[in-house]
Write a structure and sequence with these properties.
The protein has three helices and seven strands. The protein is an alpha+beta fold.
Length: 144
């Protein structure tokens, strides 16, 4: 099941928010994996989920952290306090690999034979839509 269908207690002792979601705690903003939740429950039926193995694609964010930190140091001068605080906390903790695929029936299919039953997670594929729509406003040929 998709991580957003799982909720439980935040695993961070400094938080312990009781309704953390399977990808992020809304209490402290910490990015988590559903398997880390304490007392996880399915948000649809209330049952305790069973952990199963599944092959996925990850982005190794730790590899880009030094360059990202340098860029953020230059750019964040114009950001809101909340955006700067949240970003710096993520970087202080150290970036980890993030899964970009899901076992769902709907979504953008992964174009690789080893992942034919996977789709891209919406947070990964949606931003390209925001960028590509700008073609409508930049004089792109839209005859179709």
């Amino acid at each position: 099941m998709a991580d957003r269908f799982v909720a439980g207690q935040c695993p961070r002792e400094v938080c312990s928010y009781p309704d953390a979601k399977g990808d992020q705690c809304d209490g402290c903003g910490h990015l988590i994996n559903a398997v880390e939740l304490i007392n996880p429950k399915c948000k649809l039926c209330g049952a305790t989920p069973t952990i199963r193995s599944s092959k996925h694609i990850f982005i190794d964010l730790a590899k880009i952290q030094p360059d990202l930190q340098q860029w953020i140091n230059k750019q964040s001068k114009n950001w809101s306090y909340n955006a700067t605080f949240f970003t710096n906390n993520l970087l202080k903790e150290g970036l980890h690999g993030r899964c970009i695929t899901r076992d769902l029936k709907w979504g953008t299919a992964v174009p690789h034979p080893d992942y034919k039953d996977k789709v891209f997670y919406v947070w990964f594929d949606a931003p390209i839509g925001y960028i590509s729509i700008t073609g409508n406003y930049l004089g792109a040929d839209n005859d179709d």
